[in-house]
Amino acid sequence: MTTRMAHDSGRTTARHQERASGWLTFAGTLAMVIGAFNVIDGLVGLFNDDYYLVGDNKIMVFDFTAWGWFWLVLGVVQLAVGAGIIAGRMWARAVGVLFAVLAAIGHLAFLRAFPLWSVLTIGMCILLIYALTAPPSRARG
After folding, report:
1. Which UniProt keywords apply (predicted)?
2. How far apart are CA 141 and CA 63, in angstroms?
């Protein structure tokens, strides 16, 4: 008969003290959805200028091609940030709030071109900001 001995020193690491948070998992998933929406916005802006219904093809100071690149880059970054949030990275939470605010302001400017999509995305950005700021600082996704 063999005896198994555990060689645990009894100390707990910081990783075991972190609590799992459903809010952060939700926030990471939501950031990835918003990022995917922004990638779609960017691709439409780049490849199909006639899709949006604005008379002079300008929103604020940019044309749809510039907005397309803006949404495409923002969406790709938000996809990466969403993966970072799910992985439990603190930097991703901070950057996620920053890019959610940037996306909400961008969609506010884009409201005239695509109102329903923009209102939906602004609402999701507000929910994302709450989901990222509500859990404790040591919580993990």
Report:
1. Membrane, Transmembrane, Transmembrane helix
2. 38
Q: How many CB atoms lie within 10 A of CB 101?
A: 14
Could you report the per-residue pLDDT of 101-119, keeping only the tens digit for each?
A: 999 998 888 887 778 888 9
Specify if 129 maps to a domain: yes
Task: Give the separation between CA 54 and CA 22, rounded to whole angstroms.
Answer: 40
Report which of residues 4 and 72 the model is more confident about. Answer: 72
Whose structure tokens read 């952060």? Answer: 24
DSSP 5-59: -----SPPPHHHHSPB-HHHHHHHHHHHHHHHHHHHHHHHHHH-GGGS--TTSEE
pTM, entire model: 0.77
Q: Is residue 42 part of a domain?
A: yes
The backbone torsions φ and ψ at residue 9, rounded to the nearest 5 degrees and listed phi first, read: -80, -5
Indicate if the pLDDT at residue 77 is higher than 80.
Answer: yes
For residue 98, what are the domain limits? 21-48+62-133
Q: Would residue 60 be called left, alpha or beta, if left means φ above 0 and alpha means ψ between -120 and 50 degrees?
A: left
